[in-house]
Amino acid sequence: MAIYLKENEIGYDSTLVGFPGLGSCMGVAIITTTGIFGFHSYGNNNTRGGTFGDYSRDHTHYGVVLQLYGSAVWDNRYAGKGKFGSWADEMKFIGNQLNYHGKVGGFDISNMTSGITTVVGESAYLEYRRDSLTHEVEIHYSKSADVDHQTDISPHTGVRVIKPDQQVTLPYKNKFISTATPKSGGSFSQAGDDGYFEFILP
Known about the structure:
Layout: E1 3-4, E2 9-13, E3 16-22, E4 26-32, E5 36-41, H1 49-58, E6 65-72, H2 74-77, H3 83-98, E7 102-107, E8 124-130, E9 137-143, E10 147-153, E11 160-162, E12 168-169, E13 175-182, E14 189-190, E15 196-201
Parallel strand pairs: 1-3, 6-7
Antiparallel strand pairs: 2-5, 2-11, 3-8, 4-5, 4-6, 7-15, 8-9, 9-14, 10-13, 11-12
């Protein structure tokens, strides 16, 4: 069953983690041999990364780490020129929080071919999909305005929130997003080579 994460929420799913409302936030994902651990990182160099790492490592389904991802609307998240450098620096910061070494990847949702225009007050939706047999990951995305969300309430949700004091708790009033689907029977766009970046974190 998929899981969807709002600001400063974390969670695990074996095949799909989605991030609604990526304005200036980043959708961070740890891909392992068992699934995807996601963190909706609000603000640059979010200090909650270490707590996200602890949560992931302590999880029953952690497995062997294969790759770290971080995707965002770069035009909203990073100022000025040299946005790749800003993204790479932040991913190094996150990698250090997680004590991670290896392949790092990410998608710039605001790249020229994405079809997502950078407009003040608007945001994007992004999800990571993992093939349970090959562990290959696809990135899919859309304008937030083209996505329908359903909200549910349950104390049994797998979604957690990292509080400012680093405590990990259930969402406020156990409220969470349970589905995110394209409006009008459409489909999400799939990220290709344009706007996708990788490097190795030694």
